[in-house]
Specification:
Length: about 260
């Protein structure tokens, strides 16, 4: 009798562990949808902040799932659907209410193209994510959807910042950002994923200090920090491209020679 009680389980452990990351994902989609409501009410600053929070949650839910070993196929598909809403549909609506509606049908067409490209990018990611070589996990194929959501919002974010390097009154600038981001999303340009950066133990405290400093500045100078971070990310795209080519040649030669190489970023 005691042996039977020990073997009895009300729910499977893995199913229980998958609840927490899925809850994070659902909270993210709620925040993404709420950003559309803010934009509809003309509160574009809150709409941008909602997308930013959704992006932070999107970065946490997958890591939490892997940390507690709560990954699941349902969570993977749910995360992709959430990304389409939070970083595809929501940014498109925000920018349409802010600027693109002035272009009439052309503005709506630009929004549709962008959302379709987000969906295509996520579909390709779901198919290829488990088939790449291990060292390629350090790179995304194309710009990830959360980064795409911030890129299309860049003109709006820039208008709120104090860093006015150039004028953004040109009516073609916003649709230009949409088209450029759409191309980057479905392109095969490798971009850094920052998934497998190994930090030496002695530098851990400096990493924590840097993260605290970054989020502190983000709280105080929100739009300025987002603008600078976006510009840095754009500069990293060509760097990641050449880095990927270098590693690709290195590992292709290693495979030909039959040598084992370590994961390197």
């Amino acid at each position: 009798m005691e042996q039977q009680n020990k073997n009895f389980k009300l729910v499977a452990n893995k199913k229980t562990r998958s609840i927490l990351p899925n809850m994070f994902t659902l909270v993210g989609v709620c925040i993404g949808l709420t950003s559309i409501k803010f934009a509809f009410d003309g509160r574009f600053g809150f709409a941008v902040l909602a997308i930013l929070v959704a992006g932070i949650i999107d970065g946490l839910d997958g890591r939490i799932a892997r940390l507690i070993k709560g990954t699941s196929e349902v969570g993977k598909e749910l995360d992709s659907l959430t990304d389409v809403i939070s970083f595809g549909v929501a940014p498109a609506f925000i920018m349409y209410f802010w600027s693109l509606n002035n272009l009439g049908r052309v503005g709506w067409l630009v929004c549709l193209i962008y959302v379709i490209c987000v969906a295509l990018r996520l579909a390709r990611f779901n198919i290829t994510s488990n088939t790449n070589a291990k060292w390629k996990d350090n790179f995304f194929e194309g710009v990830p959807s959360p980064a795409g959501g911030i890129l299309v919002l860049f003109p709006l974010i820039y208008s709120f910042s104090e860093l006015q390097f150039f004028l953004i009154e040109n009516e073609y600038l916003v649709p230009g950002f949409f088209i450029l981001t759409s191309i980057l999303l479905i392109s095969k340009i490798p971009t850094y994923s920052f998934k497998k950066i190994v930090v030496p133990r002695r530098l851990t405290i400096f990493l924590l200090f840097t993260l605290i400093l970054f989020f502190g500045l983000l709280l105080i100078y929100t739009y300025n920090v987002i603008v600078v971070s976006t510009l840095i990310y754009l500069l990293l795209i060509p760097i990641s491209f050449f880095h990927f080519r270098k590693l690709s040649k290195k590992f292709s030669h290693a495979n030909q020679d039959g040598e084992d190489q370590e994961d390197v970023l």
